[in-house]
Specification:
The structure is a single chain. This protein folds into 2 domains: 38 residues, N-terminal domain of TfIIb (Single Sheet); 65 residues, no CATH class. It is 7% helix and 40% strand. The protein contains 1 helix and 9 strands; from the N terminus they run ββββαβββββ. The termini are far apart. Zinc ion binds next to loops. The site of zinc ion has 8 residues, from loops.
Length: 134
Protein backbone atom coordinates (compact mmCIF):
# COMPACT_ATOMS: atom_id res chain seq x y z
CA UNK A 1 0.00 0.00 0.00
CA UNK A 2 1.42 3.28 -1.07
CA UNK A 3 1.64 6.17 1.26
CA UNK A 4 -0.16 9.16 -0.05
CA UNK A 5 -1.40 12.38 1.43
CA UNK A 6 -3.68 12.91 -1.51
CA UNK A 7 -7.36 12.25 -1.32
CA UNK A 8 -10.35 12.78 -3.56
CA UNK A 9 -11.37 16.42 -3.61
CA UNK A 10 -7.84 17.69 -3.05
CA UNK A 11 -6.36 20.30 -5.32
CA UNK A 12 -3.31 19.32 -7.31
CA UNK A 13 -1.37 20.97 -10.01
CA UNK A 14 -1.82 19.12 -13.26
CA UNK A 15 -1.52 19.70 -16.93
CA UNK A 16 -4.74 20.53 -18.67
CA UNK A 17 -4.81 19.51 -22.32
CA UNK A 18 -7.53 22.02 -23.08
CA UNK A 19 -5.96 25.00 -21.36
CA UNK A 20 -2.55 23.81 -22.52
CA UNK A 21 -0.96 24.74 -19.24
CA UNK A 22 -0.63 23.77 -15.61
CA UNK A 23 -3.74 24.48 -13.60
CA UNK A 24 -5.19 23.65 -10.25
CA UNK A 25 -7.21 20.49 -10.61
CA UNK A 26 -9.57 18.78 -8.24
CA UNK A 27 -8.87 15.09 -7.80
CA UNK A 28 -11.84 12.96 -8.80
CA UNK A 29 -10.24 9.55 -8.67
CA UNK A 30 -7.09 8.20 -7.11
CA UNK A 31 -5.38 5.06 -8.23
CA UNK A 32 -2.48 3.59 -6.29
CA UNK A 33 -1.84 6.82 -4.48
CA UNK A 34 -1.63 9.00 -7.53
CA UNK A 35 -4.39 11.15 -8.99
CA UNK A 36 -6.07 9.31 -11.82
CA UNK A 37 -8.88 11.57 -12.90
CA UNK A 38 -9.01 15.27 -12.27
CA UNK A 39 -11.16 18.27 -13.01
CA UNK A 40 -9.60 21.45 -14.24
CA UNK A 41 -10.48 24.42 -12.06
CA UNK A 42 -10.22 26.75 -15.05
CA UNK A 43 -12.16 25.02 -17.82
CA UNK A 44 -13.92 22.40 -15.65
CA UNK A 45 -12.89 19.68 -18.04
CA UNK A 46 -12.57 16.27 -16.47
CA UNK A 47 -9.65 14.34 -17.76
CA UNK A 48 -6.93 11.89 -16.90
CA UNK A 49 -4.34 13.27 -14.58
CA UNK A 50 -1.26 14.48 -16.36
CA UNK A 51 1.84 15.53 -14.54
CA UNK A 52 2.45 19.27 -14.72
CA UNK A 53 4.66 20.57 -17.45
CA UNK A 54 8.04 21.14 -15.88
CA UNK A 55 8.76 24.83 -15.56
CA UNK A 56 10.83 26.16 -18.38
CA UNK A 57 14.37 26.79 -17.46
CA UNK A 58 14.74 30.48 -17.17
CA UNK A 59 17.53 31.43 -19.46
CA UNK A 60 20.08 33.39 -17.55
CA UNK A 61 20.50 36.55 -19.47
CA UNK A 62 24.12 37.33 -19.77
CA UNK A 63 24.43 40.97 -19.11
CA UNK A 64 26.90 42.26 -21.58
CA UNK A 65 28.74 45.12 -20.07
CA UNK A 66 29.60 47.52 -22.88
CA UNK A 67 32.37 48.88 -20.71
CA UNK A 68 33.92 45.52 -20.03
CA UNK A 69 36.92 46.00 -22.32
CA UNK A 70 37.51 49.51 -21.05
CA UNK A 71 37.37 48.35 -17.44
CA UNK A 72 39.91 45.67 -18.17
CA UNK A 73 42.14 48.15 -19.86
CA UNK A 74 41.84 50.53 -16.92
CA UNK A 75 42.86 47.78 -14.53
CA UNK A 76 45.94 47.06 -16.62
CA UNK A 77 46.92 50.69 -16.99
CA UNK A 78 46.10 51.72 -13.44
CA UNK A 79 49.38 50.57 -11.82
CA UNK A 80 51.33 52.53 -14.38
CA UNK A 81 49.53 55.77 -13.74
CA UNK A 82 51.63 58.34 -12.02
CA UNK A 83 49.31 59.69 -9.35
CA UNK A 84 51.49 62.71 -8.77
CA UNK A 85 50.53 63.89 -12.26
CA UNK A 86 46.79 63.77 -11.63
CA UNK A 87 44.98 67.07 -11.86
CA UNK A 88 41.39 67.78 -10.95
CA UNK A 89 39.19 67.67 -14.02
CA UNK A 90 37.95 70.96 -15.33
CA UNK A 91 35.99 71.71 -18.48
CA UNK A 92 38.10 74.77 -18.96
CA UNK A 93 41.41 72.93 -18.82
CA UNK A 94 43.28 71.74 -21.88
CA UNK A 95 44.24 68.08 -22.01
CA UNK A 96 46.75 66.11 -23.96
CA UNK A 97 46.73 62.41 -24.67
CA UNK A 98 47.99 60.45 -21.65
CA UNK A 99 47.12 63.24 -19.24
CA UNK A 100 45.70 62.06 -15.94
CA UNK A 101 42.73 63.72 -14.37
CA UNK A 102 40.56 63.28 -11.34
CA UNK A 103 36.83 63.63 -11.88
CA UNK A 104 34.53 64.19 -8.91
CA UNK A 105 32.12 61.45 -10.07
CA UNK A 106 34.20 59.12 -12.20
CA UNK A 107 37.49 59.16 -10.33
CA UNK A 108 40.89 58.90 -11.94
CA UNK A 109 40.85 59.08 -15.70
CA UNK A 110 43.40 58.74 -18.44
CA UNK A 111 43.03 60.88 -21.52
CA UNK A 112 43.36 58.53 -24.47
CA UNK A 113 42.24 60.46 -27.48
CA UNK A 114 41.34 63.90 -28.64
CA UNK A 115 37.72 63.28 -29.55
CA UNK A 116 37.06 66.40 -31.54
CA UNK A 117 36.65 70.05 -30.90
CA UNK A 118 36.97 70.65 -27.16
CA UNK A 119 36.44 67.00 -26.36
CA UNK A 120 38.68 64.25 -25.10
CA UNK A 121 38.03 60.58 -24.61
CA UNK A 122 38.92 59.57 -21.11
CA UNK A 123 39.32 56.07 -19.73
CA UNK A 124 37.84 55.77 -16.26
CA UNK A 125 37.51 52.79 -13.99
CA UNK A 126 33.88 52.43 -15.14
CA UNK A 127 34.57 52.83 -18.80
CA UNK A 128 35.32 55.42 -21.43
CA UNK A 129 33.70 58.79 -21.47
CA UNK A 130 33.84 61.80 -23.67
CA UNK A 131 34.70 64.83 -21.60
CA UNK A 132 34.55 68.50 -22.39
CA UNK A 133 37.76 70.44 -22.27
CA UNK A 134 39.25 73.60 -23.56
ZN1 LIG B 1 -8.41 23.35 -18.20
Amino acid sequence: MQDSNLSIGDQVEARCTKCRKNNEHTILLIEEGVPFKVECSVCNRQHKYRTPIPPKKVAVKRVVDPNHAAKKEWAILRPEMNMTKVTDYSMTAAYKVNALLNHTDFGIGLVQRIAGDQKVEVLFEDGRKIMRCR
